[in-house]
Amino acid sequence: MVFVKLKHMLTSKLILITVILLALLVVSKANAGIGSGLFNTAIKIAHPIKSHKDIAYGENEWQTLNIYPSKETSTTPVIIFIYGGAWYKGSKEQHHFVADGLVRQGYTVVIPDYIKYPEGRFPSFVEDVALATAWVKSNIKRYGGNPEQLFMVGHSAGAHTGALLITDGHYLNQVALSKQDIKGFVGIAGPYNFTPKKPKYIETFGRHNFTVMKANNHVDGTEPPVKLLHSKGDKTVHIVNFQTFRNKLMSEGVNIQTELYEDVGHVSMVLKIHPWFADEIDIAKEINDFILPIINVNPN
Questions:
Q1: Is the pTM of this model over 0.70?
Q2: What distance in Å separates the CA atoms of residue 101 and residue 96, rounded to the nearest whole number?
Q3: 148-182 burial string, b = 16+ CB within 10 Å, else e?
Q4: Are 32 and 113 members of one domain?
C-alpha cells in the first residue's frame, strides 16, 4: 500500500515536471498560445489558488471577468490586470499565471475580458475595461478586496488601455468613476503613443482617432502615480513609447517611476510576473514595491 502511494506521488511529480518543461520550451519558442495553456496547467497543479470565473460585468457575452482572492483574511488591495494581444487576441484564461504571481504578493486580482477586433473597434475595448472597473469598485468587497485600493496593471495593448483610462478621464466618468478611483498604474511594454500603420491597426482605431488614441495627448497632471517598465530588447513595442510617455508625465508633475531593462523580450516581460520565470528581473516584485508605499500613505 505504501509502495503504491509512493509510486503515485512520484508519477504525479514526474508529470508535473514534464508539463512545466514543455511549457517553458514552447513559450521560449514564442508559441505563446500553446505555451500559456501548458504553463497555466502546471501552475494550477503545483500551486492551486481560489478563483471565481466568468462573472458578468456587463450585458454582452464577452463582458466577463475572473477574480482571484488573496489568501489574506482581511480585505486586500486589488489589482485589475489588463492583458495584451494586439487588440485582436488574448483571453483572461491565458493569464492565470499573472493572477498566481500577484496573489502570491498578497493582492486580490481581477482579470477582465474585453471586445476584440474585428467585432470591436476603438474605443469599445477601453470602454469595456472602464465598465469592468466600475463593477469591481462596487462589488469586490464581497470577494475580500478593498474597493478603496484599486490598482491597474497592463501589458502591451492592455497597458495602452490602462494608460488611456488614467489619462483621459472621460472613460471612467462615463461609468461614474474618476481617475482618483485608481490609486496607481503600472504599464508594462505599452504602445502608449504609437501611430497605426498596418491596415489591421488602422481599421482597429480609425484614422480619425489617431490623436485621441494616444495617451500623451490627455496627460494633465491629475493622473495617479505611474510606474513604467520597458526593455531595450523589446522588438514588438518600440522604446519611443516608453520615452515619450515618461517625458510627458514628468513634465506635468505626475509621480512616476521607471525601469528600463537591457534585453528582455516583449512576452518575457509579462511572464516574469510569475516566480517560475523571474530571475534578477522580477516584475511582480517591481509591482509590489511600487504599490506598497502608496498603500502605506493611504491605508483606507
A1: yes
A2: 9
A3: ebbbbbbbbbbbbbbbbbbbbbebbeebebebebb
A4: no
Contact 289, 266 (CB under 8 A): no
- Whether the pLDDT of residue 94 is over 80: the answer is yes
273 pLDDT band (50/70/90 cuts)? Answer: very high
Count CA atoms within 13 Å of residue 32 on its CB side: 16
- Whole-angstrom CA distances from 97 to 92, 113, 176, 190 are 10, 16, 31, 19
Tell me: do 195 and 249 sit in the same domain: yes
The set of residues, in sequence order, having a beta carbon less than 8 Å from that of 222 and lying 6+ positions away, is 169, 179, 180
- Residue at a domain's end among 9, 28, 46: 46
Interval 55-59 mean pLDDT: 98
Helix, strand and coil percent figures for the chain, each rounded to 5: 45, 15, 35
Which CATH number does the domain housing residue 240 bear?
3.40.50.1820
pLDDT confidence tier of residue 20, bands split at 50, 70 and 90:
low
Q: Which of 2-16, 25-39, 172-186 has the lowest mean pLDDT?
A: 2-16
Calpha distance 111→161 (Å, rounded): 14
Three cell numbers at 218? 490627455
Q: Which three cell numbers stand for residue 55?
A: 462573472
